[in-house]
């Protein structure tokens, strides 16, 4: 690639970073944009000037507060322009589809959700998702023709080069490019990513990772994955598989994983596995919600199982923290808020990470719960439209 082409890609990536931050945070000063994106003030000023020239952002009449309560002149704030049209978000999990219709600022106006086993039925799941998007638009009173873009997440890595599912985790989606297929059904641009990356974006912009630049978001539910944020931007890796800690091998002769390998961490700590370990000791049928409630109530059996799971996850995260030195580890998914799980993760990071690395990282539960993915997909759509380039 030529030097000019590389510079254009870099400028496009920096533009997306600015627009994504404005989409998540609302009006911000140029200085705060520089802090939030990790870009220099000169770069941010140049990008904002260009975006104002194209009408994508504008200055507000309101003024901000000086950084950290200083006494300087209140800064001028810039905000995303509010053009006509709307966006939608589509969260596809292993067992559900959730959609949201929102205005161009990302304000959600209507939602729909359904339980569905999507793993073996890719085309059918996408048909259902498209139908739900159209239904949510009607519920929100938004004309179908006003839809500008859709953000989408799937519970598997997407190959950034081919836009296809990059592993065998979803057998019914093999060789299927989810974003392209949903785009064909709806007739508007679709910006797709995996669920952990989208959850990371949501927690970065709206949740427990706000204000952080280097974060690992861990999603523990029916599977285990991570979204990595470096310098305020998602790090996806060459083929889109960065953060797949669920497939770190922890036992050569372990259980066969859905990815095709044996002994993956996910086979030891995924929610169905943990519930299966606990169920024989309880008369009531367990769910992730009940397991979390029992943990909070101090149930000894639940605390032991979740603590052991947290220590196993924390061991893998300790190695990752040694390599990346993040400011925060945010744990989401259906079991993410469990105190015993968080304690186990913290204990392993303290034991296995370098002392200075362990001391500098905060371990916290995600604040958005099961809304992280749908919130992130809407932000993905807003940023994609605003940038006018693939998000």
Automatic annotation (TrEMBL):
GO terms for molecular function: DNA binding. Pfam families: HTH_IclR, ROK. Residues 55-74 are annotated as: Disordered. Coiled coil: none annotated. InterPro entries: ATPase_NBD (IPR043129), ROK (IPR000600), ROK_cs (IPR049874), Tscrpt_reg_IclR_N (IPR005471), WH-like_DNA-bd_sf (IPR036388), WH_DNA-bd_sf (IPR036390). One of its GO terms (biological process) is regulation of DNA-templated transcription. PROSITE patterns: ROK. Residues 17-57 form the HTH iclR-type domain. It comes from the Bacteria. PANTHER family: GLUCOKINASE, ROK (REPRESSOR, ORF, KINASE) FAMILY. This is ROK family transcriptional regulator. It comes from Nocardioides guangzhouensis.
């Amino acid at each position: 690639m030529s030097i000019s082409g590389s510079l254009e890609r870099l400028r496009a990536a920096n533009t997306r970073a600015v627009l994504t931050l404005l989409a998540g945070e609302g009006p911000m000063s140029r200085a705060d944009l520089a802090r939030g994106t990790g870009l220099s003030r000169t770069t941010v000023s140049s990008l904002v000037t260009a975006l104002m020239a194209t009408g994508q952002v504008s200055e507000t009449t309101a003024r901000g507060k000086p950084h950290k309560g200083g006494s300087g002149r209140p800064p001028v704030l810039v905000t995303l322009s509010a053009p006509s049209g709307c966006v939608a978000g589509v969260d596809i999990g292993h067992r559900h589809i959730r959609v949201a219709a929102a205005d161009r600022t990302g304000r959600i106006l209507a939602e729909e959700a359904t339980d569905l086993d999507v793993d073996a039925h890719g085309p059918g799941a996408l048909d259902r998702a498209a139908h739900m998007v159209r239904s949510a638009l009607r519920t929100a009173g938004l004309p179908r023709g006003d839809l500008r873009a859709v953000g989408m997440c799937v519970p598997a890595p997407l190959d950034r080069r081919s836009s296809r599912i990059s592993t065998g985790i979803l057998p019914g989606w093999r060789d299927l490019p989810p974003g392209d297929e949903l785009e064909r059904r709806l007739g508007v641009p679709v910006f797709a990513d995996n669920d952990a990356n989208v959850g990371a974006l949501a927690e970065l912009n709206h949740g427990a990772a706000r204000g952080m630049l280097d974060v690992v978001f861990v999603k523990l539910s029916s599977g285990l994955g991570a979204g990595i944020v470096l310098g305020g931007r998602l790090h996806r890796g060459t083929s889109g598989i960065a953060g797949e800690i669920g497939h770190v091998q922890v036992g050569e002769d372990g259980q066969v994983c859905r990815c095709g390998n044996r002994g993956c961490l996910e086979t030891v700590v995924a929610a169905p596995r943990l519930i299966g370990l606990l169920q024989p000791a309880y008369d009531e049928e367990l769910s992730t919600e009940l397991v979390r409630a029992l943990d909070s109530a101090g149930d000894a059996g639940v605390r032991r199982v979740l603590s052991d799971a947290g220590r196993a996850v924390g061991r893998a995260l300790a190695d990752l923290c040694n390599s990346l030195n993040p400011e925060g580890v945010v744990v989401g998914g259906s079991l993410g808020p469990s105190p015993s799980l968080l304690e186990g993760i913290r204990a392993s990071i303290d034991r296995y990470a370098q002392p200075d690395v362990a001391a500098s990282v905060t371990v916290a539960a995600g604040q958005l719960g099961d809304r992280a993915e749908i919130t992130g997909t809407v932000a993905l759509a807003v940023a994609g439209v605003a940038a006018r380039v693939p998000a």
